Amino acid sequence: MATSLLRVAPPEELLRPLAVPERLLLGPGPSNVPHRIRAAGGRQLLGHMHPEVLQVMDEIKAGIQYAFQTRNRLTLAISGSGHCAMEAALFNLLEQGDPMLVATNGIWGQRAADIARRLGANVYEMVKPSGKYFTPQDIEQGLVQHKPLVLFITHGESSTGVLQPLEGLGKLCHRHGCLLLVDAVASLGGAPIFMDHQEIDVLYSGSQKVLNAPPGSAPISFSERAREKLLRRKTKPPSFYLDMGWLANYWGCDGEPRRYHHTAPINSFFSLREGLAMLAELGLESSWERHRANCTQLCQGLLDMGLQLFVEEEKARLPTVTTVRVPEGYDWKDITAFLMDNHGMEIAGGLGPTVGKVLRIGLMGCNSTSGNVDRVLGALQDALKRCHRSRL
Ligand code: PMP
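Output (structure tokens, whole complex):
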């Protein structure tokens, strides 16, 4: 009998019910998923080529065009997380030997440089201390020195809490024959960005931050200039899954009949559609203002507690993710664990260059409320009383 060949028993843990506690997610993402978006993701599955699904994809496209403030035809959602969109951008833009300039002031520049090197690009990195941003003069110097075809920069540096000003960078890049690639995974919907007006060539984001959808789908858009570079490629992009030619067709961006490329995460698309719909209903300007106001309230509360903000310049603070220095006499892990165990609340430690130095508090989308600011400040006050090393 075939069953006699079974050597691995059904796992005990799978015979128990799924355990998912209620938790307030105030780290740098994912953020909590409101009922409406969860319900959308729980709807019955349809086929990935059914007209109703194609219609939802068209609606997502329109939602991304609104959120990005672009009229780009080549606008869609990647089936994958923010990293997948980063790879989609780089895999399609770069060919072996292409010079690329990466503005690194935290982990996301490091990651982009790593991916670009794997592709055989000629990668130059411009490095700023974490907590700082790049000025147009810094960028121009890099463009003149390295003559890159692509510049990568992060709008919302979630590992450090820095908001990168983008004004003028697109024009500058274009004057130097370079395309501008921007990561807005942590900032989209939380801080102003205007893809067309700012002449950004490739922009991508994620679903699980301000859009409050589960992780696994990532908005991306390519300008006409970027599309032309894709058309001029001498070699195919190294990934079939992330080939923008195929994806453009599947998303109805090339005017051709849509062909099967991969089985899209349809239920994730339902959720993303609702996340974008909620942003459209609220309006970008209200969303930006809400994130700004709650971040200001949070920063003031942290300062009133005697804590130090990591990003000194107020206008350089990312409204979605606030970084606060771990105070003397404390270990960040004790604080994050205390909040989790006693307040059912997630905040995060540092990442990359900020590990051990900061705590990161995220207020994104529906989680960006004045009530949540009070909750996290209260919980932190409690943690500071209980977690001093001398007490443990
Ligand atoms: N870029 C930035 C700025 C991010 O904050 C993140 C997620 N923390 C990513 C890229 C990667 O996204 P994901 O974890 O969804 O792959």
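Residues 35-280 form a domain with the Aspartate Aminotransferase; domain 2 fold (CATH 3.40.640.10).
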